[in-house]
Design brief:
heterodimer; A: alpha+beta; three-stranded antiparallel β-sheet; 25% helix; B: alpha+beta; 5 strands
Chain lengths: 385, 89
């Protein structure tokens, strides 16, 4: 699971039986109380129900492998939609893909001139002033001049949701396998250990065995080993993204998670084009989560690095990531803001060209395009040939 | 905490949580993904909001929220424009 905090938005991604939506009210309250974002659902901030009014909300997920084991509002998509509809006005819920197969759910609110305020819990509805606030003060309005166009802000999110990972290949995400790889990487230290083991090291001191243990067992140390060994560190290579920073963790006995912060490339003015201008000063990320056990294997990859940046097209990123995890089937979603009015990336993975082999080794089964008010969504579903 | 160069992202590890994490019971990979925007862009924060927006919120405060979600913070990469939290689940 991961969380990304930007000045203007928060992304929270959690797996397993986590109860993500149960944190939403607290999130909205923190945004109002700690960060000073405007609230409209109660008259005063000291009211414990005060919650910031979001500019817009996205909530999405793939269908669960074991839905019956979920808790709280996550027991069904209908429950989740009800939970969100209770909190926001004007949300829209979609199911994209096969109902009797792999599919993807999406809940989205649209920005409007009245920021969609969250509602207070029903029990308070009678006692407090109307939950639907009066029109937001125009002053506030003027501080959102771009509320509709998003002109100056490019937003694109690619997600790859992979199931039925190749069993042999998935072994690299087990601690025992990674420890062996780590141990191979530190032969010199190994010898030193031998010397120290018999207590006769160069300076007669006993080396702290924990150093080696740490390097071959500690979650973050092994996470870095796995990132390098599986090829993840090369998705956005340090040669092109020198300031990128990967934070990876290998779970015990198995499982892997990684976040990467990828500062937008900064170019000399002469080279800046409109697209780059829009991303200057913006940080991008990718996040990966892997559950390698054969009976429930899954891996996800998500990034907001714009396709085509630094010469790597979306389809190349997809091929690289799919090559790492070798899934039996996978869903791709590409969500792109329409700021310029053009669908900037009309055919991110060769879907429109009817090429059955849009991604090497895989057959495209579904391609679905949704055009929302200010975002375009391309959904693709692929199966191994 | 480690950082490679001036201004580069800074990694902070929460060793208490990271040390004895066990994932034997993990079985559901597909995640729930929530994005909540409070402004159209970092340069369009509304009047009254902290100049750093959500980045001004201390980690501890987020950790309390994450308890409701049943997650803990393993580590954080902090950078000028974003903080990236790696979580336990």
């Amino acid at each position: 699971s991961s969380m990304f905090v930007f000045p203007h938005k928060l992304i929270l991604k959690t797996c397993g039986t986590t109860t993500l939506l149960l944190g939403l009210r607290r999130l909205l309250r923190i945004a109002a109380v700690d960060a000073g974002f405007p609230f409209h659902n109660v008259p005063e901030l000291k009211d414990e129900n005060a919650m910031a009014s979001p500019y817009r909300v996205f909530y999405s997920r793939k269908n669960f492998l074991f839905p019956d084991k979920q808790r709280g509002p996550h027991r069904s998509w209908n429950d989740e939609v009800k939970f969100l509809d209770n909190l926001f006005d004007g949300g829209s819920a979609y199911l994209v893909g096969k109902m009797n197969g792999d599919h993807w759910y999406l809940y989205i609110t649209t920005p409007d001139t009245e920021i969609t305020p969250p509602r207070t819990p029903n029990s308070e509805k009678e006692s407090s002033s109307p939950t639907r606030p009066a029109k937001i003060p125009t002053g506030l309005m003027s501080s959102f001049p771009q509320i509709h166009t998003g002109e100056d802000y490019q937003d694109e999110t690619l997600e790859i949701l992979m199931t039925d990972l190749d069993v042999e290949n998935a072994k690299q995400f087990y601690l025992s396998h990674a420890s062996a790889v780590a141990r191979e990487k530190i032969p010199a230290l190994d010898e030193t250990v031998d010397v120290f083991n018999n207590g006769t090291g160069p300076d007669g001191l006993q080396a702290p065995m924990t150093d080696i243990e740490q390097l071959t067992t500690e979650g973050h140390a092994l996470g870095t080993v796995v990132s390098d060994a599986c090829g993840l560190s090369e998705v956005y290579p340090s040669s092109k993204y020198p300031d990128a920073r990967i934070d990876a963790y290998l779970f015990s006995p198995c499982g892997f998670s990684a976040n990467a912060v990828i500062p937008a490339p900064v170019h000399a003015d002469a080279e800046v084009n409109d697209d780059v201008k829009k991303t200057a000063g913006v940080a991008h990320y990718f996040t990966v989560h892997v559950t390698p056990e054969p009976n429930c294997s899954f891996a996800s990859f998500e990034t907001n690095v714009p396709g085509g940046q630094n010469g790597r097209e979306t389809s190349e990123i997809v091929e690289h990531v799919v090559g790492i995890f070798k899934p039996g089937r996978f869903i791709i979603t590409l969500f792109e803001a329409k700021g310029t009015g053009e669908f900037r990336n009309p055919d991110p993975f060769g879907l429109r060209k009817n090429r059955t082999e849009a991604i090497a080794g895989y057959k495209r089964v579904d391609r679905i395009v949704h055009q929302f008010e200010d975002y375009d969504l391309v959904f693709g579903f692929f199966e191994r040939e | 905490s480690t950082s490679t160069s001036e201004g580069a992202p800074l990694l902070t590890i929460n060793h208490d949580v990271a040390a004895d994490l066990d994932s034997s019971n993990a079985f559901e990979g597909p995640e729930k993904l929530l994005e909540v925007w409070f402004a159209p862009s970092p340069s369009a924060l509304p009047a009254g909001a902290n100049e750093n927006g959500l980045l001004c919120v201390p980690s501890k405060t987020w950790e309390e929220m994450l308890q409701l979600v049943h997650c803990q913070v393993l580590s954080v990469v902090s950078s000028e424009h974003m903080d990236a939290y790696l979580l336990s689940e």
